[in-house]
Amino acid sequence: MRPIPDWLVVESVSDTEIGVVTTGKEAQIDLVERTGHDGRTCLVARKRYLPREVHNKGELEALGFQRASTFRHDVRYREGRQFRKSRDRRAVERMTTYGKHLLQDRWTGHEYDVMSALWQAGLTVPYPIEYGTDVLELEFVGDRNGAAPQLRSARLDAVGLADAYAQLVDGLTLIVSAGWAHGDLSAYNLLWWDDRLWFIDFPQAVDIAANPMGLDFLHRDVVNVCDWFGRRGVDTDGEALFAQLLAVM
Questions:
Q1: Catalytically annotated residue among 38, 143, 157, 201
Q2: Beta-strand pair 27-36/41-49
Q3: Selected catalytic residue, list 88, 143, 163, 184
Q4: Sorting pLDDT into bands at 50, 70 and 90, what band is 108?
Q5: What is the pLDDT of residues 164-204, one digit of tens each?
Q6: Is-catalytic flag, 143?
């Protein structure tokens, strides 16, 4: 088992919010500086899932959000994730207020669990620190000058693109070997930092064996990223890579 990273401040004295890093379709990332008892500090990315509904003017601002969530908890992603209590299952099926709250909590915990397993497997993902209601705290990828760029914005030459693609193949192999498909992989949720390709955003990750559409999601992920690299001159074959990944399942 991989040990807890040395940079992490485990017992914090205080957290200081530095500002908003980015706002996506389902969450806002805030940058937090954490200070420990011994004076050590570390940077933490606090992923706050956006409210699904806003009832009053100014409600988002009061909560510290820039905009409301547009993410839909598509039932296709939820296949294979079961609620034990019949009351909970009915609430989710009917999408009551309680059911939506259950889904929000389930997706936060799901992302933490998947990222923890993949981090232990050796995948380059931000270290998942902890999670709570609608909040997931992660290793911040970047430095005090800014966050790591998304792959689509990274200025890579031909050699860098080839290196990034090789790391993509290795990363996908680890993910599939662990039984998962990312479910929404693209150049928007891959980061480039310190010459490493970082995989992020796993709330919609699917268990390939448990989800009837698991292979479809995997195929879409592979084709999407291979097409992106192909348009930039990297020799890729999405179908061949998909077949290669099926062999490691």
A1: 201
A2: antiparallel
A3: 184
A4: confident
A5: 999 999 999 999 999 999 999 999 999 999 999 999 999 88
A6: no
Q: Is the Cβ–Cβ distance between 45 and 141 less than 8 Å?
A: yes
What does the block give as tokens for 58? 């100014």
Contacts of 209 (CB under 8 A, 6+ apart): 179
pLDDT digits (tens, 9 = 90+) for 219-243: 999 999 999 999 999 999 999 999 9
- Neighbour-count burial for 162-195, b at 16+ CB within 10 Å, e otherwise: ebbbebbeebbbbbbebebbbbbbbbbbbbbeee
Whether the Cβ atoms of residue 241 and residue 248 lie closer than 8 Å to each other: no
**Is this prediction's pTM over 0.70?**
yes
Active site residue 184: yes
